[in-house]
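Archive maintenance. Older records in this collection stored only the sequence; we are now back-filling the structure field for every entry so that each record is complete. The fields below show one back-filled record exactly as it appears after the update. Entries are processed alphabetically, and TonB-dependent receptor is next in the queue.

ARCHIVE ENTRY
Title: TonB-dependent receptor
Organism field: Phaeocystidibacter luteus
Length field: 786
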Amino acid sequence: MSAMILRTLDNRFKAMRKVLFFLSILTSFLAIGQGEYGSGWRLEVRDEAGLPIPATSVYLNDSLAGATDDEGAISFVFNSGGPVLVRLEASGYTTTEFYFERIPFGLATGITMQKSGVLGDVVVIGTRARQSPDLAPISIDVVKPYLITERVQSDIEETVKQASGVHVSDGSVNIRSGSGWSYGAGSRVLVLLDEMPLISPDAGQAQWSLLPTEAVQSMEVLKGAASSLYGTSAMNGIINVSTLDPTREPHTDIRMYQGFYDSPRRSELKWWNGIRGWTGTQFNHTMRTGDDKEYGWVIAGQAEHNGGYQYDVPDHRGRLLGKFTYFDPDNPEWSYSLTSMGLWSSNGDALLWNGYDEAYIPLDSQATRTTGFDFIVDPEVRYANANESHTIRGRFMVINNNAESETTSYYNASRMGFLEYLYQFSFDALSISAGLNGQFGRSNSEVFEGLHTLNGQAAFLQADYDFKWVTLTGGIRYESTQLDNTRWSRPVLRFGANGGTKSTRFRASYGEGFRFPTMAEVYTRTNVGALQVFPNQGLNPESGWSAEVGMRQLFALGAVKGYVDLAAFWMRYDNMMEFSFGKWGEGSADPIQDFGFRSINIGSTEVPGIELSAAFEIGVGESGKLTTVGGVTWMEPRPLDPDFVYATHPGLFPSSPDQELSYTSTSSNPESGILKYRYQWLGKFDAQYEQSWWMVGFSVRYNDFMQNIDGIFLDPLFSQLIPGVEEARLNNAQGDWIVDARIRANVSESTSVSFVVSNLTNLEYYPRPALVGPMRSFALQLRYKI
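Back-filled structure field:
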């Protein structure tokens, strides 16, 4: 045994030496001088709020001299003292020019840039470099932080639901119907925190509770395959959440809130007496200290006690985040940061209801209660000068969960490590992003029938070239992943273009994607009450591509600024993995235990569609502002071969023949031609009007009727086990309109009070079979900012 361990360690060290060898070659570029413009005169670029504007292109006498660093600064040296014409260009800001007869040597010059006619958003996930979403070759939405704070939300998952074309159910997120319901096992949408994956190594699901609502600086949603940039799980898109950066002056934000649930529209659904609700606190504090403001600090946290609206399904949590950044005053090109976050949670989960009239009670009153402690540690080292940057960053994530129900009990310990080197270079019209990354995962749980390991490595390259009238993008990535003793490898490509005038932008893109099976999909064996979840060790990887053409019209007319965006898209998936219900077991003492869920490959599918979205800011009078954002998405998710037999399972009775499974034979409505658990129409809208000391706003989310589910849910015999699904569908065939409303009053410059009503009409809606959404709720928030 000891010899085996030594051989394993030796192999690991050999692999690590190879990684370090490549890193040493790539990081050798760090010893590069600053060129013609090195030091002497310091230019500092700020926005109207006094915050730095990184990545501002600086032109001296019409020649590109470089770009500002993370502090919004750049330094130069000249052979002569002037004159010089300086031009500043930054995404989302008006181009600024100024003229010097003589250079103010030895001094720092501060310049303020104003936001341009567009909304001033900046994203990083489209090309891994800062740019305006107007210039991206693919659809990218920016979700404003006010949608978190003003709507009094403690979970990013709820905020994501407001993005156009995005749907979330049971923690499973899909963009433009790129996937159905998977109960959190596997995801085609990659969720990032500060540009690094926040996906569990076992189930491959987004860790929503580790996304700090109290410390969000920005949130971006990329729609379409992005595996060439970020790898597996990015088949359907990316959601990136960026945490707060340190501010030069101290800033504190404290939010305390109290909420409660209203009675359901049908009185028989109310299972509790008295008042049921939640209470919580969120805070953040940012600052920089030191003689040169070289030490940056961010501390943020959340504590919430939520009894839940479902029987025995609470959601209690405590979270604390700390970020430290060091900006070297003697070597301003260098910065170092360390972020750490811990989460304690105690919550419940219910897969299926107990019936149409007991929809808020889990099946057989059995919910799974989970207690856990998770934490992440993120170190980063960055070198950036005017033309290039080198970034080494990593993430170590630990997930510890102890789950119990009346029929099962298990412990899950998962570990994930991620390390990435990213090199970015720009020269005239050419920009390059290249890098290497590696990750490992380890999970030990009875649910996965023991210990399993995951290892992956990738290399990627992307180039962007600006021809003035059009910018072309091309990228390639090669990734290899090994789950236990099974290895999968493949390259993926990406191409795109964005061009037009300053006010009218056209774009086109093509991106390939892939997703490898997760531990949960391959190995999970557990039960939810009487129903089972079955493993599938024969599951194969899925691959696909997405293509898009689009146009964005920008507006800046007096007090009105914004955009209207139209996109047509087409997605294709081969060997698509789906979470499917059926009789996957055989020979159990209780025949019911042969039924359950399993991930399977269902063949090839496609999703064509169109999306129209818009966002506007309108000035009203001297101090009023109306902000609107919304969109409508039409999709047609369909199988390419409805009669393709992708699996067989035993008949319902011992004497019954085996059943061949296909889209046609397993669907509740195969005539629709729509894939199971998908919508064809999604609509989102949010409007907020703010005037001096008060604000009022509302949100609307619409989805049409889910035309197709697993047909077994409507089987008369099976409905005796899980009753009410057909009745609920008959009463909800018109789709759902979910409306939220909010008001706020500013008591003083630093204090405000908000009141929010979620599900204003108390609509009874069903995100999937045997699950009802939350009833109307009310929340009151006190916010203090200094």
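Update note: The longest helix spans residues 2-27. Residues 145 and 218 are 6 Å apart (CA to CA).
Entry marked complete.
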